[in-house]
Amino acid sequence: MPDLDKALADIVAIRSQIAAGTAFRGYGPATMAATGALALITAILQYLFIDNPTADPLAFFLGWGLAAALSGATIWIEMRARSRRHHSGLADAMIYQAVEQFLPAGVAGVLLAVVLWKFSAETLWLLPGLWQILVSLGIFASVRSLPRGVALAGAWYFVSGFAVVVLASQTHTLSPWTMGLPFVIGQSAMAVILYVASGDHDVED
User: pLDDT tens digits for 38-59?
Assistant: First the structure.
């Protein structure tokens, strides 16, 4: 039994090493484009129906939280399906690796929102820019297993995050466009990069 356990542990370690050195193909360009479209729709709806987001931050952030949850669920469903097709027996290891790379940034974003809301509500105007910076860090953490071009999308979110913080510092207000436009551009860039990197240009594959 000890020999069997060691053999199984060795197999798991080998699979993890192979997964770490394999390009992850679980993210699809069509889904990335769809998340960009969802960001645009959310921004438009908030522009039309929330007169003053700064005075109603709950509605503002709930809207973006819902958009993030829908985007995450869509990406997760496609990621599992594509990983099964492209990575076969390595699918679970590849998915675990992808989640592990992005999870710290995602958790930090949620906790940051909770802390600011609970202890420093007057600084909530910082959150859109800080979220974009965290997204950039998550993308940079994933670069080693994705097409190198995704670093450009990471750089975009990094720059846009600081730009949004600077702009919002002038008025300390929330705007659907300082959330929507950066994510529309960033997710669209990711979609184009993944589309070009796929080689066969099959957005459904």
Answer: 999 999 999 999 999 999 999 9
pLDDT of 56: 94
User: How far apart are the C-alpha atoms of 186 and 154, rounded to whole Å?
Assistant: 8
- Report whether 183 contacts 49 (CB < 8 A): no
Beta-carbon count within 10 A of 92 CB? 14
Q: Rounded CA gap, 129 and 61, in Å?
A: 13
Environment class of 153 (CB within 10 Å of its CB; exposed 0-12, middle 13-18, buried 19+): buried
Q: How far apart are CA 116 and CA 120, in angstroms?
A: 5
Characterize 42-58 residue by residue with b for buried, 16 or more Cβ atoms within 10 angstroms of its Cβ, and e for exposed.
Answer: bbeebeeebeebeeebe
User: Residue 1: its pLDDT value, please?
Assistant: 54
37: Cβ–Cβ under 8 A, 6 or more apart, which residues? 184
Helix (H, G, I), strand (E, B) or coil at 174: coil
Contacting residues for 94 by C-beta, under 8 A, at least 6 apart = 19, 22, 24, 26, 83, 87, 145
Residue pLDDT, tens place only, 146-204: 888 999 999 999 999 999 999 999 999 999 999 999 999 999 999 999 999 876 444 44
Candidates 180, 195, 111, 102; CA nearest to 147 is: 195
